[in-house]
């Protein structure tokens, strides 16, 4: 059941790259935090406690969230296997962003539990968040920094040494085609460039789990293809990606697991083949969610061009 007074708990939101509670102290996380890329393999990513292969990358257990009288998320249970590319799809207002916000520590649930590689997010937030890379919906950035400064700042907040952060920032700027705009203030970036620089901030500390809310929105096709290739390589190296998207074809091409969410509930979840059942994902989605419109009341629209 929902707690009687969910309004007593407030969201813990902040700009991308900013600490949610306090700056991360390297002494508060597992050994290896200050190491460079040589130690950033599947089981030795910065801040990551050892975990058995069977431990999910993310486990959501009975998540609830209510805003005034509206229940946005109603008892969501979801298990994301480690090493998977997991797609989260649903109509507008389905509760996807609220669920991902609770899963990454940006919004406190009214009830339920979030486990990141077996670590309770709300009981051990610094340890859990060290393993997370997050691209939220409508990221809040320190936009009076240049793109390069923003990435470096995000890396320093995660406890990396400056030389490592600067090297990684250059790599990320090149991979995301932002080298020419590295010294441009983020406030002057386009929507697509802002999305890419926020993704770079989510990647700089080599997280074990990436949670991306609509990462391809406003991104041009070439950049989108580069980002897909980057994420696919990340998963092949042992990382886990959760991505929300409205584009079914994109999810079908990228993801090996998928969950369909509507009205705050998970309607179907599993491997892509299990959820599709031999059908197109969009057809399964529409059948589960409902609401297909026929356009029968728009006869005047079909005849308007013929009469002109």
TrEMBL record:
The keyword Cytoplasm does not apply. It comes from Cellulomonas alba. It comes from the Bacteria. Residues 58-288 form the ABC transporter domain. Keywords: Antibiotic resistance, ATP-binding, Nucleotide-binding, Transport. Pfam families: ABC_tran (PF00005). Residues 24-45 have a biased composition (Basic and acidic residues). InterPro entries: AAA+_ATPase, ABC_transporter-like_ATP-bd, ABC_transporter_ATP-binding, P-loop_NTPase. Gene3D superfamilies: P-loop containing nucleotide triphosphate hydrolases. One of its GO terms (molecular function) is ATP binding. It is a peripheral membrane protein. Residues 1-54 are annotated as: Disordered. It is found in: Cell membrane. This is ABC transporter ATP-binding protein. The keyword ATP-binding applies.
């Amino acid at each position: 059941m929902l707690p009687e007074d969910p309004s007593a708990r407030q969201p813990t939101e902040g700009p991308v790259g900013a600490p949610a509670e306090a700056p991360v102290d390297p002494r508060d996380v597992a050994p290896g935090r200050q190491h460079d890329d040589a130690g950033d393999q599947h089981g030795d990513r910065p801040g990551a406690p050892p975990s058995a292969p069977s431990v999910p990358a993310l486990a959501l257990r009975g998540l609830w969230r209510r805003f005034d009288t509206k229940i946005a998320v109603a008892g969501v249970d979801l298990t994301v296997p480690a090493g998977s590319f997991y797609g989260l799809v649903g109509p507008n207002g389905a509760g996807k962003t609220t669920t991902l916000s609770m899963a990454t520590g940006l919004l406190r649930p009214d009830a339920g539990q979030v486990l990141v590689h077996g670590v309770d997010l709300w009981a051990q937030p610094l340890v859990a968040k060290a393993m997370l890379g997050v691209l939220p919906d409508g990221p809040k950035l320190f936009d009076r920094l240049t793109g390069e400064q923003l990435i470096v700042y995000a890396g320093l907040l995660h406890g990396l040494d400056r030389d490592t952060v600067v090297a990684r920032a250059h790599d990320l700027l090149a991979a995301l085609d932002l080298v020419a705009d590295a010294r441009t203030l983020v406030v002057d970036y386009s929507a697509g460039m802002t999305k890419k620089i926020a993704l770079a901030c989510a990647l700089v500390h080599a997280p074990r789990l990436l949670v991306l809310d609509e990462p391809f929105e406003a991104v041009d096709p070439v950049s989108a293809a580069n980002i897909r290739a980057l994420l696919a390589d990340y998963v092949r190296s042992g990382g886990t990606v959760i991505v929300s998207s409205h584009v079914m074809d994109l999810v079908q091409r990228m993801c090996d697991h998928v969950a369909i969410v509507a009205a705050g509930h998970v309607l179907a979840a599993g491997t892509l083949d299990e959820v599709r059942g031999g059908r197109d994902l969009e057809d399964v989605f529409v059948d589960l969610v409902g609401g297909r419109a026929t356009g029968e009341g728009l006869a005047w629209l079909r005849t308007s061009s013929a009469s002109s």
